Amino acid sequence: MTATAGRDGHPGTSGSPAGSDPDRGAEDNLRRRIAAELIRTRERSALLTDVVDDDDLMRQHSTIMSPLVWDLAHVGNQEELWLVRDVGRREPVRRDIDELYDAFKQPRKDRPALPLLRPGEARAYLGTVRNKVLDLLDQVRFDERRLLANGFAFGMIVQHEQQHDETMLATHQLRQGPPVLAAPPPPEPAVAVPGEVLVPGGPFVLGTSTEPWALDNERPAHEVDLPPFVIDAAPVTNERYLAFVADGGYDEPRWWSEAGWQHRCAAGLRAPMHWEPDGSGWACRRFGRYAPLRPDEPVVHVCFYEAEAFAAWAGRRLPTEAEWEKAARWDPASGRSRRYPWGDEDPTPDRANLGQRHLAPAPVGAYPAGASALGVHQLIGDVWEWTSSTFHGYPGFVAFPYREYSEVFFGDGYRVLRGGSFGTDRSACRGTFRNWDLPIRRQIFSGFRCARDVRPGELG
Ligand code: AVJ
Ligand code: FE
């Protein structure tokens, strides 16, 4: 959403949060922006579920994914729990279905066997909940509770629905059968992108305490001092990844971590997910269509272990999430951390490949307007980028508003991904946004870029 720019690390320039402004006009403006975001988001959920028939919606396309109709009703149930019941203090619409749509109570593999709402019932349920929400949005006072400050509860629900929309898009990619989704191709490269960028050592501000709709795991802002490092100016492309495959990288245990090699063998990995042998080379299947691999496109559908092995083969490593964020947000001219690589303004179509506007990552060089102050390209959009970091709370972390969003996933089991993919909505990514998944997962739109330490003498 268009929110007041957070200016972390510069107390003197903190924007005044629109929602806490006692002025009625500012509150109405926030209401209008929230309603527009809710409606825009629901259009996406509808598109993703209207393009297939009822049987297809009820079916499980992969045991690691939910039936699409589960995601749909779950989105409505979260909206009911947080906005109708908690924020609006209204009577439950369907208390009887809470358990069915509780992700912690229902393992994914069991979801198709549950007595789920049929597609027509699910759509009607979402409509009933949404009408109540739009009604209560008109009456809500944003200064009443912390949960409502700057419209946070609504922003959290918008981001939740958009995250499930991205998950539904990944389910579409796993679906068998003819294509049902279409979009224009991403833009062509407009500039040549250098190989690597040097990021000077020194402190910078990581995370945020001011971004109005930032989730709990992005908070609080805190200073981190990093030694200098070098990071790829663009995500690793199919061309570079193909060289690793062709060099026998998948058959050489020395490039893989112990856990990575074990997984490579158990899962029989030979190439990224959705790559298919094509004569002597490879093609890829994307939303039901076959296409040759485009060399200058970021590689997508690799797991953390594959990213880690490529980096070792290339004589590099994955960046930590702090390194990724410094490359993305740190502005050497001001010393300040910006909301996005290009500055504090919200994403626009010329800055980043987001929101399912295109159904593929864009070739390297297609988004010069999205480059960071240091000249690092395509950090936001295209592909989620694996980092070497495990998922933990920042110093001073406080779960808000519920432990189950982030805190229960803290630990060494998950790896952090940054930046968002072509399937991520602009409301659900920013310079501070943290995604996480198991290191074996690759049905998500995941790629990576490499980093390395500075070589002796390189700093001049
Ligand atoms: C942040 C993408 C890992 O999909 O599991 C959705 C988001 N949390 N419903 C997920 C989420 C609750 C979450 N990720
Ligand atoms: Fe959810």
Automatic annotation (TrEMBL):
UniProt binding sites for gamma-L-glutamyl-L-cysteine: R108, K109, D110, R111, D437, R441
This protein's name: Hercynine oxygenase
Organism: Plantactinospora siamensis
Names of the cofactor(s): Fe(2+)
Homology family: Belongs to the EgtB family.
InterPro entries (UniProt xref): CTDL_fold (IPR016187), DinB-like (IPR024775), DinB/YfiT-like (IPR034660), EgtB (IPR017806), EgtB_Actinobacteria (IPR032890), Sulfatase_Mod_Factor_Kinase (IPR051043), SUMF_dom (IPR005532), SUMF_sf (IPR042095)
Taxonomic superkingdom: Bacteria
Keyword Thylakoid belongs to the record: no
Residues annotated as domain Sulfatase-modifying factor enzyme-like: 193-452
Gene3D superfamilies listed in its UniProt record: paralog of FGE (formylglycine-generating enzyme)
Gene: egtB
HAMAP family: EgtB
Protein function: Catalyzes the oxidative sulfurization of hercynine (N-alpha,N-alpha,N-alpha-trimethyl-L-histidine) into hercynyl-gamma-L-glutamyl-L-cysteine sulfoxide, a step in the biosynthesis pathway of ergothioneine.
Keywords from the named record: Iron, Metal-binding, Monooxygenase, Oxidoreductase
EC number: 1.14.99.50
Binding site for Fe cation: H74, H160, H164
UniProt region (Disordered), positions on chain: 1-27
Pfam families: DinB_2, FGE-sulfatase
The DinB-like domain, residue ranges: 38-168
Catalytic activity: gamma-L-glutamyl-L-cysteine + hercynine + O2 = gamma-L-glutamyl-hercynylcysteine S-oxide + H2O
UniProt pathway: Amino-acid biosynthesis; ergothioneine biosynthesis
